[in-house]
């Protein structure tokens, strides 16, 4: 059985190919072909001899992802891709084109075990974790499409299907690979990790010494409401999540983003805005308000524009940094899990 080298660091590739007579420096050459040039055929690696390419093709594979389905929003700013791996598992990846650059949202798991009420990813539970290479494959697939238009991926948001911190080791491999000069050479500051609030892993990530942005799914100002929306709150209640977030901000110097999905009649009232402002007062934080992208299976409704503006004003008047997420891809149901649920 051939060894898949996609997702390996250059040093790991060097160690894998050395027994076949290739010098160690070939590891970085091969890595550049794969990650920078999106080459998956050893025959095209022209700075290797014909004999070396033949040996590689006989013993190694470069397994990435293939497209199963695609949707594009009417405004052409958002595109969603359903990407398929060699075992038949499929995940969603979303490209968002902004005036300031291209952002890609990647998935870290096939499905999700967190059970959040507002999320389509978790409707059928979790199937498996993705490897670091499979997470990277999503990104490089999009980067290859962008290269044809003479542009590239500028930022990464790790908030597709799955809970990233529940797949910690593979998440970290992906982040470090993206940062390598022979891969995408992306700054850690251009990467955002989203979590529903797994406290031990937030603390672990803070200790890594890499200043990635942290986004925490808060979605409620009280434990009572949050536990109804997010079962994880019963393990890690608001107070412990906020303490971990403060520690992360202190160690990395990065402002925490608190995601807050607004759901009609559940967490969008003026008293909810007041309670949210009270728990975030004095913290290095920004609130990102997200009108819920309706999930028909859950029966959750989007608040009216007036209620969204009222909630925004309630936070702003209490001196909380707040934004309303620009809604992208609503016409293609760009929320996590919706395309996969229809196609698989």
Give an account of the 3D structure:
- By secondary structure, the chain is of the alpha/beta class.
- The chain has eleven helices and 14 strands.
- A hairpin with a 2-residue loop joins strand 5 (90-98) and strand 6 (101-105).
- Helix 6 runs parallel beside helix 8 (238-252).
- The radius of gyration is 21 Å and the shape is elongated.
As a percent range, the share of helical residues equals: 25-40%
Order of strands in the sheet with the most strands? 3-4-5-6-9-10-11-12-13-14
Largest sheet: 10 strands, mixed
Q: Low-confidence spans: pLDDT under 50, at least 5 residues?
A: none
Residue share in β-strands? 15-25%
Total strand count, please?
A: 14
Mean pLDDT: 93
> Which structural class should the secondary elements be placed in?
alpha/beta
- Helix tally equals 11
* Distance between the first and last residues' Cα: 28 Å
Rg calculated over all Cα atoms: 21 Å
Outline type: elongated
Order of helices and strands: EHHHEEEEEEEHEHEHEHHEHEHEH
